[in-house]
Design brief:
The protein is α+β, with helices and mostly antiparallel strands. The protein is built from 18 helices and 29 strands. The chain folds into 2 domains: about 190 residues, Glycoside hydrolase, family 65, N-terminal domain (Beta-galactosidase, Chain A, domain 5); about 450 residues, Alpha/alpha barrel (Glycosyltransferase), CATH 1.50.10. Strand 28 and strand 29 form a beta hairpin. The longest helix has 21 residues. The two termini are about 45 Å apart. This is Glycogen debranching enzyme (Alpha-1,6-glucosidase).
C-alpha cells in the first residue's frame, strides 16, 4: 500500500491506517492496520457485498479520530451507475467503532450477503518495522454466538481483539456476515464495535482508556473543542499561517498519549506510525515548543519522566542513576526483552533537557511547587551529567552504548548510523560527544542554578553550578571551534579530534547560550548562508560536505523541529531578522503539506523545486514537527517570560501582515500580543 492512498486516524497511541476504501490488508512490513500498545490488533478488515470488493467514490477524514468512506460495489470504471451505495463511518478513541450503512437506489428489492473478513497477526510494531514474520506464541480465533474473539498468547503475555455488532451476524473464525434484504430506496445499517484487550503478568488488564460503548465520538468532539478553546487564538492576515496553526493545534491534540500509570493525564507521543509512545527527548522538545499554547503537557511530561528516571546500572537498557529515559514500549518484544525499551535509556540529551524544561515551565507557569517536588530528580540528572556521562573524563557529555546488540549506536537526536562524520566522510569512533549536547548541559546548569537559589534554598549549590557552567563554556569555545571554517565542530572523538563539518547543530548552540558573543554573528551567517539554508529551511548537513545528501536522513534533509530551535537561538542572540528568514521558509513549506509539516523534507535548493520535496518515510503527524510552527510563531512575535511578565518584541517577514495572538496563558494570567510584518527577507537572504 502506498503512502498516497492510505487514510490515517488516531487517538493517542491507538491508530488505524487503511486503504481509501476503509479496507485493511496488512503485510508483515507495512504499518497498516489497527494498532494500540505497540501491537497490531487488526491486520485484515475487508468488506464485500455479494462477494464483490468495493470501489471508492470519495472519503472524508473528518477529524483526526474519524473518517467516512463512500463506496460502491465493483471495480472502478469511467462511469459508475451503481444501484447500491455503501457508507463506512469509523471513529477511534481507545476502541474502534465502525458504522456500516447500505442504501438501495434500485426500483427493485435486493438481497445481499454483506461480509467483513477480519483477522489479526498481533504483530509487534518493532516486528513490522524490522520485517520479522515469525511469532513465537499462539494465535487463536474463537467464533461465539454474539462476537468474534481474535487472540494471541505467549506465556503470560496476551492480546485480544473482540468484535461485536449491533445487528445479528453470523460469526466464523475468519470474520462475520449479514443477510440483508432491502426494499427500493431502503437503507440498512449496523454498528461494529472492536475492543482491544492487553493482559499483562497475572492477567492484569492494560487497556488504554477505553470509553463506554457508543460515547467515543461525543467525548472526542467535546475534548477537542475544549482543547482548542483553551489555546491562544491566532488572528492573522496570512491565511496559510492561520491554517498551519490550526492544523498544528489539532495534530497536537491527536498525538496526546496517556501512559498506563498516569490515569488520564497526557503527554505528546512522538509520531505516527512508528513512534506512538513516550520518548524522553521528543516529548521534552515538543513541550518546550508548545509552552505558550498548552503548558499542562509540560507538567505531565516532567512528572512521568521523573517517575521513570534511572536508578541503577543496567547495560541492557543503557540505564544509569539519574538518566532520563529515551523510549518506552508496551509490545511483545519489550515484554520478553528482545529489545530493551521497557524503558530504554539510550539518549544522551534527554537528561539535561529535562532540567531545561522544568525551569522554562516555571518561568511560564509560576508553578514553584513542581520545581520543589522534582528537586531530587533534577539533582540526580545533574549528577548524571558530571559522574556518568563524562566517559572520557574531560568535562564533556559523551555517549557509547553498552547494549551492543539492540541498543542505539548514535544516542543524540541525529541517531542514524552515518550522521556523525569527519570532513573526509569517515565516521567517528566511540565514545562520541556532539556539540549541541554540551550546550544543553551548560543551559541545564545555568537554569538549575536559578532554581537552587530561588526554590531549593541552596544558594551554595547554585553558585557551584554556575561556576561549572562558566568553565564548561570556556572549554567548549576553545576545544570545539573550527578556525578554517569559523564554526563549531559537530562532535569530538575520544582523542579530542574534531568532526569538522558544518551542520545545523550550531543553531542549537545559540539556543542553549553556550556560544561566545563575539562568535555568534559568524554562526548566524552560516545558518542563513547558501551552504546550510536552502530557501525552505536549514539543512542538517551543509551542501559541499562529503556526506551531504539532500534526502539523507540526517545528512542534508531539513527538519522543521530543528529549524524552530535554530530560530529561537538566533532570537536569543539578537538576530531577529535571520530568525524570521528561517521561520518564513519553514512556514512557506508548510502550505505545500496542507499545514502539516512532516518529520523531514528534502534539502534541495529552493530555486530547483517549486515545492519542498517529501522525504519518503517521514512520520506524519510528528510531535516536534507539529510544535515547530508554534515555536516559530513565538519566535517571530518575540514573546518571552521576563521577571514574571510576558515581553513582546516582534520581527515579522514582509507579506506576513498583522498577527494577533490572544489569551496567551501563563503566570501573568492571559495576555495578548500584536505584530505587523515589516522585514524585507529577500534582500537579507541575498
Amino acid at each position: 500500500m502506498t503512502e498516497g492512498n492510505t487514510i490515517r486516524i488516531l487517538d493517542g497511541s491507538t491508530f488505524v491506517v487503511s486503504e481509501d476504501t476503509g479496507d485493511i490488508e496488512a503485510t508483515p512490513s507495512e504499518p497498516t492496520g489497527m494498532f494500540s500498545l505497540d501491537t497490531r490488533f487488526l491486520s485484515r478488515w475487508v468488506l464485500t457485498v455479494n462477494g464483490e470488493r468495493l470501489n471508492t467514490l470519495s472519503y472524508d477524514d473528518l477529524q483526526y479520530y474519524e473518517a467516512r468512506f463512500f463506496l460502491v460495489p465493483g471495480m472502478a470504471t469511467h462511469y459508475v451507475d451503481a444501484k447500491l451505495s455503501i457508507i463506512r463511518e469509523r471513529v477511534v478513541g481507545g476502541s474502534f467503532r465502525e458504522q456500516l450503512t447500505i442504501l438501495n437506489h434500485d426500483e427493485k428489492p435486493v438481497d445481499l450477503r454483506v461480509r467483513m473478513d477480519a483477522g489479526s497477526d498481533f504483530a509487534d510494531l518493532f516486528q513490522v518495522k524490522d520485517e520479522i514474520v515469525n511469532k513465537k506464541g499462539e494465535l487463536y480465533a474463537e467464533a461465539e454466538a454474539d462476537r468474534l474473539r481474535l487472540g494471541y498468547r505467549r506465556g503470560n503475555f496476551r492480546r485480544e481483539t473482540v468484535i461485536s455488532c449491533s445487528r445479528t451476524a453470523r460469526y466464523d473464525r475468519n470474520g462475520f456476515e449479514f443477510s440483508v434484504h432491502l426494499e427500493p430506496n431502503e437503507q440498512w445499517s449496523t454498528d461494529i464495535d472492536v475492543q482491544t484487550f492487553a493482559l499483562g503478568p497475572g492477567g492484569r488488564d492494560l487497556r488504554m482508556g477505553v470509553r463506554a460503548h457508543g460515547t467515543e465520538r461525543l467525548a472526542l468532539q467535546q475534548d477537542l473543542q475544549e482543547w482548542i478553546a483553551a489555546a491562544p487564538k491566532v488572528n492573522t492576515e496570512c491565511e496559510h499561517l492561520a491554517r498551519t496553526y490550526q492544523r498544528s493545534l489539532v495534530d497536537l491534540a491527536a498525538l496526546r498519549f496517556s501512559p498506563l500509570s498516569l490515569g488520564g493525564s497526557t503527554l505528546p507521543a512522538a509520531g505516527l506510525p512508528w513512534f506512538m509512545t513516550m520518548f524522553g527527548r521528543d516529548s521534552i522538545l515538543t513541550c518546550l515548543q508548545v509552552l505558550p499554547y498548552a503548558p499542562a503537557l509540560s507538567k505531565t511530561t516532567l512528572r512521568i519522566l521523573a517517575s521513570l528516571q534511572g536508578t541503577r546500572f543496567d547495560d541492557f537498557r543503557d540505564e544509569d542513576p539519574g538518566r532520563i529515559l529515551h523510549e518506552m514500549r508496551y509490545g511483545e518484544t519489550a515484554a520478553f526483552e528482545e529489545q530493551p525499551h521497557s524503558p530504554y535509556y539510550g539518549s544522551v540529551d534527554a537528561t539535561p533537557l529535562f532540567v531545561v524544561l522544568l525551569d522554562e515551565y516555571e518561568r511560564w507557569s509560576g508553578d514553584e511547587s513542581l520545581v520543589r517536588e522534582l528537586e531530587q530528580e533534577c539533582r540526580a540528572a545533574l549528577k548524571w551529567i558530571d559522574d556518568y556521562a563524562d566517559l572520557v573524563g574531560n568535562g564533556y557529555v559523551w555517549y557509547e552504548r553498552r547494549n551492543t546488540d539492540t541498543g542505539l549506536e548514535n544516542q543524540c537526536w541525529k541517531d542514524s548510523w552515518d550522521s556523525i562524520s569527519y570532513r573526509d566522510g569517515t565516521l567517528l569512533p566511540f565514545p562520541r560527544a556532539t556539540c549541541e549536547v554540551q550546550g544543553y548541559a551548560y543551559d541545564a546548569k545555568m537554569r538549575a542554578a536559578r532554581m537552587a537559589r530561588e526554590f531549593w534554598g541552596d544558594p551554595a549549590y547554585g553558585d557551584q553550578l554556575e561556576r561549572e557552567a562558566t568553565l564548561l563554556k570556556e572549554r567548549f569555545n576553545r576545544d570545539w571551534w573550527v578556525d578554517d571554517g569559523q564554526f563549531y565542530a559537530l562532535a569530538l572523538d575520544p582523542d579530542g579530534r574534531r568532526a569538522d563539518v558544518l551542520s545545523s547543530n550550531i543553531g542549537h548552540l545559540l539556543w542553549s547560550g553556550i556560544v561566545d558573543h563575539d562568535r555568534a554573528g559568524r554562526i548566524a551567517e552560516h545558518l542563513v548562508g547558501p551552504r546550510l539554508f536552502s530557501g525552505w529551511g536549514v539543512r542538517t548537513l551543509a551542501e559541499g560536505e562529503v556526506r551531504y545528501n539532500p534526502i539523507g536522513y540526517h545528512n542534508g534533509t531539513i527538519w522543521p523541529f530543528d529549524n524552530s530551535f535554530i530560530a529561537w537561538g538566533l532570537r536569543r542572540y539578537g538576530f531577529a531578522e535571520e530568525a524570521a528568514v528561517i521561520a518564513n521558509g519553514i512556514l512557506d513549506a508548510a502550505r505545500y503539506f496542507d499545514g502539516r509539516l512532516p518529520e523531514a523534507f528534502g534539502g534541495y535548493q529552493r530555486e530547483l523545486t517549486k515545492f519542498p520535496v517529501e522525504y519518503p518515510t517521514a512520520c506524519s503527524p510528528q510531535a516536534w514537527s507539529t510544535g515547530a510552527p508554534m515555536l516559530l510563531l513565538r519566535t517571530m512575535l518575540g514573546i518571552e517570560p521576563h521577571e514574571g511578565h510576558l515581553s513582546v518584541e516582534p520581527c515579522l517577514p514582509v507579506g506576513m501582515g498583522r498577527i494577533e495572538m490572544l489569551d496567551i496563558p501563563g503566570r501573568w494570567g492571559k495576555v495578548d500580543a500584536f505584530a505587523r510584518g515589516r522585514l524585507d527577507l529577500h534582500n537579507l537572504a541575498d
